[in-house]
Specification:
48% of the residues lie in helices and 9% in strands. It has 19 helices and 8 strands. Strands 2-1-3-4 form a 4-stranded parallel β-sheet, sandwiched between helices. It has a 4-stranded parallel β-sheet with strand order 6-5-7-8. α8 packs across α9. The radius of gyration is 21 Å and the shape is globular. The relative contact order is 0.11.
């Protein structure tokens, strides 16, 4: 008998009309021509499971994981099927394990080792300025996340400096994971436990919960209790509300992540850089898991070296920043990659 989660997935899968529109936008299919990396191909296999109760082999479960979670197929799907939802919940109810250990555990170990050997990597020198500003406008909680904690503390320092500059004192910094690796792995049990930990650390009288990462922001929408969701705000939105001075004319490139749908508070003259179909190859930590395939996709989706050489690229998603650094290195470009907060702090 199907569980409630599988029934929900079954309803979504049955809505697929096999029209093939996802075929024209899926970066994985365009790079590999493999139907099993396409939503339509996966749903044909899933239909066979639901109708004949045949169980999946490890090969199919691994193919299920080879997804960038860009959700372009949903945007072009006439049946409005949420492919990311189907993938996450299917992996959860089928106890998705084709590896000897959970990837979320490997990811945390990777971050820990990266921090130890971080002297090998370029780091932006942004220090925390502990100024005693007289005006405290509200009680602020800053969500640091994994990336700032392990990889790039300069983004946290830049964010806290910017908050003080507009008159806000940060009462608390939360360094927990937003839950993205657990959700993408289909490990909803750990995802829910992590969500409880985050909510327990937030004071009831908080005025704003500030994030400097678009991906963390979108995840916290799923994680936070209803009493806190209205307090969630991005760093650039708070800068805009407080009329932070952006009069400096910049000729830099802003990379807009797919998870960011609304406008961003940018310097005049900043051009927006887009990629064809994917936010960055760090989506679902893809570049860590499937490096060869990631390089193949990169050739089709990233900008040319000439477009970015000797320029500064800044982005409001920390995973995108990490992915962009790897991509810039792959094409041997001289471009400099910063987070949104780092660029704002260094430009003023």
């Amino acid at each position: 008998m199907l569980t409630d989660d599988l029934k929900n997935i079954q309803e979504d899968v049955y809505k697929c009309s096999k029209c093939g529109l996802c075929q024209s936008v899926c970066p994985l299919y365009l790079a590999t021509k493999n139907e099993m990396f396409l939503s339509r191909g996966r749903y044909i296999v899933l239909n066979n499971f639901f109708n004949n109760k045949k169980f999946f082999g490890k090969k199919f479960l691994k193919q299920l994981d080879i997804c960038l979670n860009c959700n372009l197929c949903k945007n072009f799907c006439p049946s409005d099927i949420d492919a990311s939802f189907v993938n996450v919940y299917l992996k959860n109810v089928l106890n998705y394990k084709y590896r000897a250990f959970n990837f979320s555990f490997f990811y945390k170990m990777y971050l820990f080792l990266y921090r130890i050997f971080s002297f090998r990597y370029y780091r932006v020198n942004v220090r925390r300025n502990k100024s005693n500003l007289p005006v405290i406008k509200a009680r602020i909680v800053y969500f640091e996340g994994c990336y700032n904690r392990y990889i790039n503390p300069s983004d946290k320092n830049a964010s806290l400096n910017l908050l003080e500059r507009i008159g806000y004192h940060t009462d608390k910094v939360i360094s927990l994971c937003c839950g993205y690796p657990y959700l993408q792995e289909g490990n909803l049990k750990i995802f829910k436990k992590n969500a409880l930990k985050i909510n327990k650390q937030i004071p009831n009288d908080v005025s704003y919960i500030v994030t400097s990462c678009d991906n963390c922001h979108e995840m916290l929408k799923k994680v936070l209790d209803d009493r806190f969701k209205s307090k969630l705000i991005r760093l650039d939105e708070l800068l805009k509300i407080n009329s932070y001075d952006l009069s400096f004319n910049s000729n830099s490139l802003y990379f807009k992540p797919l998870v960011r749908c609304d406008e961003v508070y940018l310097f005049p003259g900043s051009k927006t850089l887009y990629k064809k179909g994917i936010c960055s190859l760090m989506e679902n930590f893809f570049i860590l898991k499937y490096k060869k395939l990631a390089k193949k996709i990169l050739k089709e989706t990233f900008v040319s070296k000439a477009e970015i050489d000797n320029k500064t690229i800044y982005t409001s998603c920390l995973l995108s920043k990490w992915g962009l650094e790897k991509e810039v290195k792959m094409i041997k470009s001289s471009a400099r990659v910063l987070t949104y907060a780092e660029y704002m702090e260094l430009s003023n």
